[in-house]
Amino acid sequence: MSSVIAPPLIGATPDTFAYKTIKERWPKIVTKALDELHRSYHQTVKELGQEYGDDINSIIAKISETRYRMETNKPLLDFEGKTEDEKKWNIHLNKMREMAGPDNSTWYNLPWLFVEWYGLN
C-alpha cells in the first residue's frame, strides 16, 4: 500500500468530475432554487406581507451574484462573519487563499470538496 496521498480534485481540469460539477451541475441546482423563489414570491407576499417579499428579493440577489461568480470563476468571498460558523469558514478560506494565492482562490482553482461545502453554506 502506497503512503502517497492523491492531490485534491480541482475544477480547472476539463473532463473531470469536479469540472463537470462546477460547470454543469451546480448552475442547474442554483437556477432551480432561483426559479422556485421567483415562483413563490407573489403567494408569499399575499400570505405574509411585503417584508417577506423583500427578504425573497434579497435572497435572490445574493444567490444570483453567487451563481455569476461561480460561472465566471471569480474568487470566493468571505462570509459576513456574523455567526461562529461563518467566522470559522473565513479562517479556512484564508488558509486556502494562502495556499493557492489570491488570484487562484476561485471556484475552479481551489480544491473541489472545499468549494462544494463553501457553496452549500
From TrEMBL:
Biological processes per GO annotation: DNA damage response; methylation
Names of required cofactors: Mn(2+); Ni(2+)
Assigned GO CC terms: nucleus
MF terms in GO: metal ion binding; phosphatase activity; protein carboxyl O-methyltransferase activity
Protein's UniProt keywords contain Methyltransferase: yes
Catalytic activity: beta-D-fructose 6-phosphate = dihydroxyacetone + D-glyceraldehyde 3-phosphate; beta-D-fructose 1-phosphate + H2O = D-fructose + phosphate; L-glutamyl-[protein] + S-adenosyl-L-methionine = [protein]-L-glutamate 5-O-methyl ester + S-adenosyl-L-homocysteine
Position of the signal peptide: none
EC number(s) reported in the record: 2.1.1.-, 3.1.3.-
Keywords: Hydrolase, Manganese, Metal-binding, Methyltransferase, Transferase
Protein's UniProt keywords contain Endoplasmic reticulum: no
The family this protein is said to belong to: Belongs to the damage-control phosphatase family. Sugar phosphate phosphatase III subfamily.
Function: Metal-dependent phosphatase that shows phosphatase activity against several substrates, including fructose-1-phosphate and fructose-6-phosphate. Its preference for fructose-1-phosphate, a strong glycating agent that causes DNA damage rather than a canonical yeast metabolite, suggests a damage-control function in hexose phosphate metabolism. Has also been shown to have O-methyltransferase activity that methylates glutamate residues of target proteins to form gamma-glutamyl methyl ester residues. Possibly methylates PCNA, suggesting it is involved in the DNA damage response.
Domain notes: Subfamily III proteins have a conserved RTxK motif about 40-50 residues from the C-terminus; the threonine may be replaced by serine or cysteine.
Protein name: Sugar phosphate phosphatase
Organism: Panagrolaimus davidi
